[in-house]
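the two lines:
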Amino acid sequence: MPIGEEKNGTCDRSIYVNNPHLESMKEDILYHFNLGTSTHDLPAMFGDVKFVCVGGSPWRMKSFTEYIAKELGLSEPNADYPNICAGTDRYAMYKVGPVLFVSHGMGIPSIAIMLHELIKLLYHARCTDVTVVRIGTSGGIGLKPGTVVVTKQSVDSVFQPRFEQIILGKLVVRSTELDGELAEELLQCGKDLAEFETVIGNTMCTLDFYEGQARLDGAFCSYSEEDKQNYLAEAYAAGVRNIEMESSVFAAMCKLSNLRALLDRLKGDQLTSSHDVLNNYQQRPQVLVGHYIKKKLNASKKN
Amino acid sequence: MPIGEEKNGTCDRSIYVNNPHLESMKEDILYHFNLGTSTHDLPAMFGDVKFVCVGGSPWRMKSFTEYIAKELGLSEPNADYPNICAGTDRYAMYKVGPVLFVSHGMGIPSIAIMLHELIKLLYHARCTDVTVVRIGTSGGIGLKPGTVVVTKQSVDSVFQPRFEQIILGKLVVRSTELDGELAEELLQCGKDLAEFETVIGNTMCTLDFYEGQARLDGAFCSYSEEDKQNYLAEAYAAGVRNIEMESSVFAAMCKLSNLRALLDRLKGDQLTSSHDVLNNYQQRPQVLVGHYIKKKLNASKKN
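prediction for all of em together
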């Protein structure tokens, strides 16, 4: 059910929803955003969106908003960016020009609720050619701390590129393939900048932070240091360079809805690095994505 | 690895962690709480905790804190309850006397991270006889809106009382059995209060809010209204009375760590009820749990 729009004689890449029931609904309430089709003019509010940046923490999304506003020359002195989802504490949302920022909390279920409502929001707002970028920190495997990892494929705990969704009690397997061209473009941005190491690799997505990622410091642990190292070595051999908790459903849902999806994670070593070092690390994916967005917007202005 | 404490000649119910690696760690950083064993005196801060109330939203946890403070006669005029996890935006934490309140976000992975760190916090603080109660709203099946459901068993999408945990890429199945005696006690509190309907039933826990709970209004939907009704009827026949997204791992982890666990959810119909009605509904689990905590604390004073 895409809204195919003709512009300059070419058909834009439209946002797909795949739900015949939406047509017959009098209104669509995006409950966890505290937005809706009869209470808000979604095309007016969001129709110009071309990039959506998502990340776990609301605080980090706000500071990323301020950074991008400055980078794009859209910041005003003492500007405060209001939270568009102010009426709820589930997610936070900010907007600067054509760039939307949304927090998604931690884990697959939390980001999936946000993505369902984001996809419907972009659809109702009749957005086209939207690129969604997820940024954040992650545990790295075999990389120097501070390396930025651009995800080639999101894989599960046995290193397969798939996302398992349960629908009406039945298992449905979805592909987690990402846009390879985008990943190469982002890698190229990393080379242009030459400020820090950027690599392409597979990202393992888990449902659990402690036992699911072979950590030894959870409330429960039934394996040895050696078991952990063996598992991480297997992951490395399968091309995994970092581990996090949202990439699989992000890749699967963006693919289903015709959104260009990009994952750009930082390998941080939170326990041994100083606060200054960590702060510098956390800027890196932002710098890279900021450079990428600027480049794309400048290119589209020239066309 | 329980800390067995002798008090008044009887051995208290201690908090178990089950991780031999913790013993050899110089410090334990509870990263997502922004607390740690070398930066905070956890026994002094939390040693008296007997009840932990958890729920998804930080705002609702704060208002529940204020309500319980008043109920227990511990509130002071114009008292503001500081967020103990103020240095992070992952979770919010408040404390009033022996009652701790923690938010956990949405979904199994998000509450699991919180529970790993909560269990270690209670362990490091040498707490004993702790009851953990999860409150919140949920979708109901075959119940009047506003009914409070006390969970007998947490079941998965095919109605089995189990939680599947992946450890080093391998499936481990954990029991989600809850404390039946506690559920009966809470049901009794509902009868004492006689203010609203309280029932005991099974709670279905899903990884997804839209397709996972047979909703027709997500970005994707591949089934009909009839398929949905059939699935919910099957769930009802299996004893399911409400659906939410955190109960299975809550039940499994509390069981593994010797915590008394209680789930108390409200069946709300968020789209058709007015705000006043909804606000009244959302108070109900709080009123019930407040009554229960008061009763237990009074009983322990008499002994």
